[in-house]
Amino acid sequence: MAIIPGRLRALRKKHQLTQAELGARVNVTKVSISGYETGNRTPDTDTLNDLANVFGVTTDYLLGRVEHPTPPFLYEEALTTDEANLLREHLEFLRYRANKRDDSSEEDA
């Protein structure tokens, strides 16, 4: 599966790296980085992981599977199961309250 070319280029520029500098960090040539950015080449799995690590994003973000560069906090590895469940319950409550507020606003209108 190919990287979304615009995302890789944007990340590289955001981190103020040249194609050669990025290539050196992930052990590929400048030509390979250029190919990834234009969509003419596809990195192998190790290189894809290295690119994600350099930029602090997920491989799913580079591949276009998700819109956010980092996973939501609910999937943070440091959370215990109990903490994640509490956060989910709190989120459900906040959504319920927001929906209730929206419903009462519509009745007032």
From TrEMBL:
Residues 8-62 form the HTH cro/C1-type domain. SMART domains: HTH_XRE. Keywords: DNA-binding. GO terms for molecular function: DNA binding. Pfam families: HTH_3. This is Transcriptional regulator, contains XRE-family HTH domain. It comes from Shouchella lonarensis. The lineage of its organism: Bacteria, Bacillati, Bacillota, Bacilli, Bacillales.
